[in-house]
Write a structure and sequence with these properties.
By secondary structure, the chain is mostly helical. Helices cover about 70% and strands about 0% of the residues. It is built from 25 helices and 2 strands. Strands 1-2 form a two-stranded antiparallel sheet. About 40% of the residues are buried.
Length: about 800
């Protein structure tokens, strides 16, 4: 068994690359068939087969570097998450379940970790009893340190930013990686020290080399001590190894420095350094025995202790009998200057991945990069949102302003009562016919029943999911009672994330029900008026419900109109003209909205973005932010519509002001006729009932869409609970039958989404809140994040080959 450590591999397994790539291309590259990239997928699968292998051979170095280079390029073409579930097992626990992630950056980090592990295992396999073996061991250890340095500086930050907090494995976080980096440097420096001892270098130089070895081991140990998560995963024997080695080489440095003091007749310093060396070596030996360091490490430091004890006896006797030199305290000893020879070496194929790609070329070289595709999608989303907010919403708001203003002024009912004192105005006849043709009340009642049924269906889905979890909890309780020694988290701890989601979904559902109640109350309030609009014109029911403004004492008279009557008619004509201009303005906005829609339908910035992307370096990780100038420039062509709406809004405000002023003059000039006022009120009530009918229908349509979208999410949530229960039962079967353990059941993964993002959570709850406040403004919940999950099979664990023991000379 060697007295140096090698890094174990993070075991990984075959993953369904072909299926994930096919699904991604079908979903995001609709103009491309997945079969066009069969070679690329095959090449990817072939290269990754080297990653799965645990063979220790120098030829695998090039294969791992080549695969890493391809992953770097693939990430310029594909997003980190394409739905490919990638498993890597923990380093120090061969029986642990694999830790999985959908991120390709996770695969990249795993490859780099295994490359450093391969370098370290190649180094420990060298025969360090020969100069040739030491030379190669130094090189491999420096390569391992350089790979770990590259992983910590370049990839680990990307991995942490692409995953949820606390989701990245401890072995791929900076503290643990730095500990391994300094361990590899320490062992490389130790090989340099061993070569110096072998070649009989001067004691002073050997002391300086040994001091650096001890310092590097100490730094490696400190990284673990200062990080609680790293302490949990690193075996106690490793920690004992690092601390023992640190004390060992600090003692060895003092020992060699004492020999140099002896050579120059500094006998007092010699004794002081020997005593300090013995103290350090004794501390290291105690740690080695208590912490379970390997036998060779214990033997090495024990042999150093023996050497020191013999030299202390000799030095103290000589000084007491012959030299009589004062022995200074340890604090007075000059510090040993450290000399560092080992340095991290990063392979060229890592620093410049282009150099590591073989003659076959890069994978997905012809595929449109995800950054380009995302930039196009971002533009399309911005354009759609801009049109919705700056055009559609403004048009609707301006039209509502007209309707609300005219409603508050009792227009056009006041003019209808004057112009047509008997019968129904044509506008009201048209609106009543529309409600009658729709079977308005029956339609509303049917939609209310549908909304209630969908709400109940959504609640049943949540209850069904909770029933599944409750049944599993009963099974788990029975299992735990029968097997109290089995370490397994209880159901109420393991399903916390699912229960939290259930609580959020119930809150959303309750908010939606409150909104439904507001709509139902609105229908009850206006039901009689809306039913009145369905009365047939032929039966004169609707006409008779509207009082006439012609008084009985004026019927049949042919008296000439008075001056006041003429003035009222003049004001009425002016009001009619203003109302017609408002209608023209509203129709013009409808046409403007249609023009915007036609322009958006023909708008495609793909070629301009592709042209910009073609001028970029092929290996550059193209980000959507690089195209911001293009997106802003393309979106600016819609600005003219906003300017036109601004002008329309100013015109409308001026016209509504004129309507309000003219209406006041009209009312002032009109005689105080109770029959006219009654007719105005009746016409106004019927007109308002029509608008309330349209509003209620719109509310109910939005409610139906909301519940249908929510049902999709809740169905997937129920299926997620089923999948989670299946994993829990597989764990129980593993306990009984010792079958290969199932993939990790935590973190809980919904079908197609590894975690529910904060943005997605807020989008659902905000949707329900908006619906409760204003039923007209209800966005559907976003369900595009949910996908399905296939877990990898566990391969057999390869046997480790014994390493050759190397003795250490001091």
């Amino acid at each position: 068994m060697p007295n140096q450590l090698s890094i174990p591999f993070k075991r990984t397994y075959v993953v369904p690359i072909r299926d994930a790539v096919r699904d991604y291309i079908l979903a995001h590259h609709t103009g491309t068939h997945p079969d066009a990239y069969r070679w690329d997928v095959s090449q990817w699968e072939k290269l990754r087969s080297e990653v799965v292998s645990s063979v220790v051979h120098v030829d695998r170095v090039a294969a791992l570097i080549s695969y890493h280079a391809q992953i770097v390029f693939i990430l310029t073409k594909l997003p980190a998450d394409i739905g490919l579930e990638i498993p890597y097992a923990p380093v120090f626990d061969g029986n642990a379940l694999p830790e999985t992630s959908n991120s390709l950056i996770y695969d990249r980090a795993g490859v780099l970790f295994n490359l450093s592990a391969l370098f370290s295992q190649l180094a420990t396999a060298e025969d360090r009893s020969t100069p040739h073996g030491l030379k190669h061991a130094i090189k491999f250890y420096q390569n391992a340190a350089g790979t770990l340095q590259y992983l910590a500086d370049t990839v680990s930050p990307l991995l942490q930013s692409s995953l949820a907090p606390n989701e990245a494995p401890v072995e791929l976080l900076t503290p643990f990686i730095r500990s391994l980096e300094f361990l590899m440097l320490a062992q490389a420096q130790e090989c340099v020290w061993q070569r110096a001892v072998m070649d009989n270098f001067k004691n002073g130089l050997i002391a300086k080399l040994a001091a650096k070895v001890g310092s590097l081991y100490g730094i490696s140990s400190e990284y673990i001590k200062e990080n609680a998560s790293a302490r949990r995963v690193v075996p106690s024997s490793w920690q004992a190894h690092l601390e023992t080695k640190a004390f060992h080489f600090q003692a060895a440095a003092q020992y060699r420095k004492s020999l140099e003091d002896l050579e120059v007749n500094n006998y007092g310093y010699e004794v002081a350094r020997l005593l300090e060396a013995h103290s350090l070596a004794k501390r290291g030996y105690d740690i080695a025995r208590r912490g379970g360091a390997s036998a060779p490490v214990q033997q090495d430091i024990k042999s150093l202790l023996d050497i020191l004890q013999k030299n202390i006896t000799r030095a103290e006797r000589d000084n007491d009998l012959i030299y009589h030199k004062d022995v200074p305290p340890t604090s007075a000893l000059p510090a040993i200057v450290e000399v560092s020879v080992a340095i991290p070496t990063v392979e060229l194929g890592l620093k410049d991945p282009k150099t590591a790609v073989g003659s076959d070329g890069v994978i997905f070289g012809e595929l449109l990069g995800w950054g380009v595709r995302t930039a196009i999608d971002i533009y399309n989303d911005r354009r759609q949102n801009w049109i919705a907010e700056e055009v559609s919403e403004r048009v609707r708001r301006l039209d509502d302003n007209i309707a609300n203003t005219l409603e508050s002024l009792s227009l056009p009912s006041a003019l209808d009562a004057l112009d047509k004192p008997i019968g129904l105005p044509p506008s009201l006849v048209k609106k009543a016919g529309e409600v009658r043709a729709d079977s308005g009340p029956e339609r509303i009642e049917a939609m209310i029943r549908d909304v209630q049924a969908l709400a109940k269906h959504n609640a049943d889905l949540i209850d069904e999911a909770m029933d599944i979890l409750d049944h599993e909890a009963d099974e788990d309780e029975a299992f735990r009672e029968g097997h109290p020694d089995v370490e397994r988290p209880a159901s109420h701890e393991a399903n916390t994330e699912l229960v939290q989601k259930e609580q959020r979904y119930r809150a959303v559902l309750q908010q939606a029900r409150d909104s439904d109640e507001l709509v139902r109350q609105k229908w009850e309030q206006w039901e009689d008026n809306i039913v009145q609009l369905t009365w047939t014109e032929a039966s004169f029911e609707l006409e008779q419900s509207i009082p006439s403004s012609t008084s009985a004492d004026r019927l049949g008279q042919n008296s000439p109109p008075s001056e006041a009557h003429d003035l009222t008619r003049a004001h009425a004509r002016a009001l009619r003209a203003l109302l017609e201009r408002l209608e023209d303005l509203s129709r013009a906005r409808v046409e403007l909205e249609a023009r915007v829609g036609r322009l958006a339908a023909s708008d495609d910035i793909t070629q301009r973005v592709l042209k910009a992307a073609s001028g970029m370096e092929q290996w550059v990780n193209v980000q959507p932010a690089m195209f911001e100038d293009i997106l802003d420039a393309e979106l600016s062509k819609f600005d003219r519509f906003r300017v036109q709406l601004d002008e329309d809004e100013e015109k409308q405000e001026d016209m509504l002001r004129q309507v309000s002023e003219r209406r006041a003059e009209f009312i002032q000039s009109r005689r105080d006729d109770a029959s006219i006022q009654a007719r105005e009120l009746a016409l106004q009530s019927m007109d308002l009932a029509y608008h309330k009918y349209k509003e209620i229908i719109r509310n109910l349509e939005e409610g139906l869409k909301f519940y249908n979208d929510l049902a999709v999410i809740l169905s997937q949530f129920r299926d997620t609970c089923k999948d989670w229960v299946v994993l829990r039962r597989r764990e129980i079967r593993h306990v009984f039958h010792r079958q290969p353990p199932p993939p990790a059941a935590a973190p809980i993964i919904d079908r197609g989404v590894k975690r529910e993002s904060e943005e997605h959570r807020s989008s659902i709850s905000d949707s329900a809140r908006r619906r409760a406040r204003a039923p007209l403004d209800l966005p559907p919940p976003n369900s595009d994040e949910w996908e399905t999950m296939d877990m990898p099979k566990m391969p057999s664990v390869p046997k480790k080959t014994p390493k050759k023991k190397v003795a250490v000379r001091h």
